[in-house]
Amino acid sequence: MLYVKAQRIETEITASQPHSLKLARLPAGRLLATWIDRDASGISTLYAAQVDRQGASLFGALAVSNSAVTRYDLIGMPAGGAWAVWSAVVSGEPTLVASRLDDAGRPRMPQLLQLDADYPALAVLISGDVTLFWLQGENQDLYQAQLIDTGLSEPVRRSPAPWVGQTGDLLAGLSAGVDRSHGYVVFHTLTNAGKQRALVTSGPLDQPDWGPAAPINPVMGDQPFQTGFNHGIAFTTAVSASAPEAGWIAPARGQYDIMAAAAMIETHLYVLYFRAGALVGAQEITSLPSGIIAAPSLTLDDERDLALAWWQPGPETASLYAISSR
């Protein structure tokens, strides 16, 4: 189902055990939804469906992948359609596979991108180019390349992996964002004590070596900060190793002068603002009675309004919350 202006709309899409839902905006107010579900043979398959504001879908759920999917990312294109990149096991090793989807959710034939590669994360540039980040090889260093119709451009090594296996921590996934000049990649990790931790590496999009990923410890100042987005008041922000770390950091899609990201710091939800590789501003959104279940989601519309959503645990079930600057 969808919620449009607080009204619940039933959709025509059905699934068995769907998870890892991602959305991309399409022209004319439509959405492209993707998720992982088991097919009739029990194989974890990536599906896609276009849904309009009335809940109707032209073709219903369409299988995108042709082999078992472990994780994936999706990003919408400025001119319509989307790219999906997923990790599959080929000959016993993780392999990245991609497909271009049209506005109706119809996928092209999957194409192999990179062997011995995992944890895809996508970002789209204002030019319409799509850049892919992933972890490569046994060392799991961070690499980047442009997605092109024939596959990938020449891969560039960006950063050594903050190899969490050495500390007993678990790597849950990657997410990526960009501003006008810099790229940002977040390593989402879970410590062996059960604490969520975000490690960030960043650097110029035209330079190879970004350096190792590190935690973000924001310290808000008292000077108002202009972000270029529509929201309340943000303040200049620096970092200090003595300040609490951000447990979740989730970059918004799109390329602007400033990269906005949702963040959870202790029991507070923030929007953090990065420029040229540095944290420059922050805005506290709300304080929660407990933590959140998964990474929050921050989206921007064409008018640069912010929408923040998160899952919050309750006594018996979790509830989805959202707040918008519109």
Question: Could you walk me through the main structural features you see in this protein, from its secondary elements to its overall organization?
Answer:
With 326 residues, the chain is mainly β. It has a domain at 166-326. It contains no helices and 29 strands. The chain has a six-stranded antiparallel β-sheet, with no helix packed on it. Strands 11, 12, 13, 14 and 15 form a five-stranded antiparallel β-sheet that branches. The mean pLDDT is 87.
Main beta-sheet strand count, sense and barrel state: 6 strands, antiparallel
SS-based class = mainly beta
Instruction: Give the overall shape.
Output: globular
Stretches with pLDDT under 50, minimum 5 residues? none
Percent of residues in beta strands:
over 45%
**How many beta-strand elements?**
29
**Assembly form of the protein:** single chain
How are the strands ordered across the major sheet? 20-21-26-25-24-22
Q: Portion of residues in helices?
A: under 10%
Query: What is the count of helical runs?
Result: 0
- Terminal CA distance: 23 Å
Mean pLDDT: 87
What is the string of SSEs from the N terminus onward? EEEEEEEEEEEEEEEEEEEEEEEEEEEEE
Cα-based radius of gyration, to the nearest Å: 19 Å
